[in-house]
Design goal:
mainly beta; three-stranded antiparallel beta sheet; rod-shaped; 128 residues
């Protein structure tokens, strides 16, 4: 006999199998099936932007999901001065105040600690 299936929730599942022969003799076997989430969250690609200094960037919405259906968290680093990340809306907004090329890194983490890193660049220029 075989136990089959696809687990849908993370956890530790105790299993007890009782086997009985034709004479009524029983044997009980117990074991645990651990189910872990090792799949990284999926993050939609984020396009870079080139903007004039002191001109607002186009809002950047970080779109991410996890196979568990649970919420993910995002951490953003490398933003230029004047640009911020709102973790409640998962949106990057603002007006860069200094010229430069800014490599941005987004680390998206699911409830089980699996991470996906996404990178893009905001280029701020002064052409006037």
């Amino acid at each position: 006999n075989t136990i089959t299936g696809t687990p849908t929730k993370v956890g530790s599942y105790p299993i007890t199998v009782i086997t009985t022969d034709a004479d009524g003799n029983e044997t009980e076997t117990s074991f645990t099936i651990p189910v872990q989430d090792t799949t990284k969250p999926v993050v939609s690609p984020i396009a870079g932007q080139t903007k004039e200094v002191n001109t607002a960037i186009d809002p950047i919405k970080i779109e991410a999901s996890d196979n568990s259906g649970q919420a993910v968290t995002n951490k953003v680093s490398g933003l230029p001065s004047g640009v911020t990340f709102n973790p409640d809306t998962n949106t990057i907004i603002g007006t860069p105040t200094k010229v430069g090329s800014y490599p941005i890194t987004v680390i998206t983490t699911d409830a089980d600690g699996n991470e996906t890193e996404t990178s893009f660049t905001i280029t701020v220029q002064d052409t006037t």
